[in-house]
Hints:
Helix content of chain C: over 70%
CATH class of chain C: Mainly Alpha
Distance between the termini of chain C: 55 Å
CATH topology of chain C: ABC transporter involved in vitamin B12 uptake, BtuC
Shape of chain C: globular
Number of strands of chain A: 2
Mean pLDDT of chain C: 88
Structural class of chain A: mainly alpha
Distance between the termini of chain A: 52 Å
Oligomer: heterotrimer
Number of helices of chain C: 13
Radius of gyration of chain C: 19 Å
Strand content of chain A: under 5%
Structural class of chain C: mainly alpha
Largest interface: A-C, 46 and 43 residues
Helix content of chain A: over 70%
Strand order of the largest sheet of chain A: 1-2
CATH architecture of chain C: Orthogonal Bundle
Largest sheet of chain C: none
Strand content of chain C: under 5%
Number of strands of chain C: 0
Number of domains of chain C: 1
Number of helices of chain A: 11
Radius of gyration of chain A: 19 Å
Amino acid sequence: MFLQTLITGFSIGGIYALMAVGYSLVFSILNFSNFAHGTIIMLGAYIGYFLISSFNLSFPLSLIGAVLGAALLSLLNLRLAYNPLINRRSPSLYLMITAMGVSIFLENMVYVTVGSHFYSFPEIFKQSTIKFFGSDISPLDLAALIFSLISIYALHIFLTKTKIGTAIRAASYDMTTASLNGVNMTKLIGIVFLLAGAFAGLAGVFLGVKYMVYPTMGWITNKAYIAAVIGGLGSLPGAVIGGLILGVLETFVSVYISSTIRDVFSFSMVIIFLVIQPAGLLGKYLEEKV
Amino acid sequence: MPLLELKNVTKAFGGIIAVKDVSFSVDSGEIIGLIGPNGAGKTTIFNLITGVYKPTEGNIVFDGKDITGASPASIVNAGIARTFQNIRLFNKLSVLENIRTVLYREADYGLGDALLRTPKVTRIEKKLYDKSLEYLEVVGLTDFIKNRADSLPYGLQRKLEIARALALDPKLLLLDEPAAGMNPDECVDLVELIEKIKKTYDLTIILIEHHMDVVMELCPRIVVINFGEMLMEGTTQEVQNDSRVLKAYLGEEYANA
Amino acid sequence: MDYIYGVMAVICIEIIATVGLSVFTGFTGLFSLGHAAFMAIGAYTSAILTYFYHVPFVLALLSGMLMSGLISIILGFPTLRAKLRGDYFAIATLGFGEAMRVILENLSITQGARGLPGIKHYTTLPVAAIFAVVVVWLTKNFILSKFGRNAIAVREDAVAAEMAGIDLFKVRMLSLIYSAMCGGLAGGLFAHYLNFIQPAMFTSVLSTQLTSAVVAGGMGSITGPILAIALFIAVPEVLRVANMWRLVAYGLILVLIMIFRPSGIMGYHELSFEWIGNLFRKKNCNKIADKRRT
């Protein structure tokens, strides 16, 4: 039972981490919480679902389609909604309100156009389970976890080993200096949103496969945001660690205490956590310059 | 007894030491200059004095009391006010309200009175209004009382910041680059203003400034900071003639030339 | 006629909650996504008191306000004390709203998700209107006092406010309690207007409506949000729009306002005859600003 819970927790944590990465990427460069990220994840799930069910594409192709689609939507979101504010150097509160607006708008657009049906992905992995030290593990959970970790690692390599990645990291420390050094900020921010969107598409499909596709599935992403906060907004390893910690703790709470208080637990945890460690586990120094 | 005393103050951010073992004292009624190249740690020293940061090591004593690590609010109440390098006004409030806001400590009415707007509130608010006007008169902003703070030109915003600091009724005033972005005429104007407020309000002043003529004009004594450390302390003359100071500002080659 | 009467009563009730939230979000600069929860607390507290314990209406309303205020302290104490970034506070309020829903659905005295029917009808239009006028008047006084100025100072520049000796935690806490109590009052009036409440009435839809009204009306205005909430309620009634389309519109309004007029419909002004008059003679005061831009 214990091992089983732990493994389930890790696989949920893996998906949280996948979603949390998007929050952290955007936060690291623009210093605001992009609450529209959850909606992009939801749209990614819909794209994946319709590609696989209506166009009869294979799972890998649908996944790629979802990734590309979500990345484009993310870029569109930036161009239409955020860029006017970024160019005006608006306070980050305004960006956050806009993000909220985008999220409310898109989520309910899906409601009124596609409807509130729950769609489930066709069977991709066989229902059979793998035995592991006497516990049943679903191949889906295992695949989700492994895939999450691999793609986040790939992102890490991209950020540390390539020229664009280095520029992104430089900009996340100091945007003014980076732009003085000839880094094209508009392009860089665009790339960051494309990346965040790609991860949203990935996360959306995995989330959809695991929990079905419906308009308010973005609610789950609030917990991914919590994971990013716990790990330290703006930090990639932080997002992974935060995601795994939250996934495991939450699964234990719902198995051993009660599943109704699971979400309440997550929110209370983040509040308590922030009181003790305001910048998160690995977050950058957040105090304002005077 | 000095009004303010810094004893071996050090501040480290993680591994970076921003201020290292700085000690100096300011006597009551003095006006001293704090100079040094950009990034030397001057503003950090102001932040340490006003409680924005807590020193990693060392002590700060003000008016006989140890204020090391005290909260910004208690330090203001002890009698230290400041202005900011990058002007921080309450932008959307009017010029007058910027001053009236910081006079809240003299607004001796409770929440109940405020909600019901009793005659007591009206009376006190009127008193604060008049008092705010007095401060604005000192810095010459009475023509703009209804304008929003962020609609003022740069130079006037700096003056409003000074007036706001004065309204906190300080014994010690910390001015962080008050002449930044001012032309020579405005600088002359500012020097006169600082001399005037020092006399009127019986102030002790520490001045961070890059306009050397302003510093030389105002400050008989100067503390020079470089790379977070105290380079020297001395009279205007001593500082002007010190090769280390030239080197710090202009680099090795120029100093030797 | 009854119908118009009803819409107006709802507008009056929601004005109370919106004006309260404008103190917190508009004047103090903190974003909340869970203020419907305070309405729920006020609604349930007062309804339980009048329904089960036959407490007089006004006393029940007061109790609802107090309960909301108390619970806002529980929310605010850890979150505002730690000087959390605005984003973190927003997510905390989101969680708070969700927690409140779970609690209301699982308590026996609230009768869970089925809700409380048969609450006495005490809130008539005149009652709601009188309360709305009183709350607006109190709020105006609050904003024009040192408490309001301190709140605006904290919103405008928290660092400078702190350096002027203003206690950020106290200011933010006071605004939160004030807005929570207004929410509690609105909730209590709401319960005794509809005669029936259930947890599903106080979801994020309502929170979004309140917050959108404050943002759209103007963060730093009392009359702006009043105008906005009145429109938000009246327009869909006239057009008979489904709930979901309303949310689509709120979302779009938030985005468009932030892009084109971040200071809201009213900006930092109040709707008054003087202001309307100034609209036509306005140019003078902006001269300096114009000069600087050129």
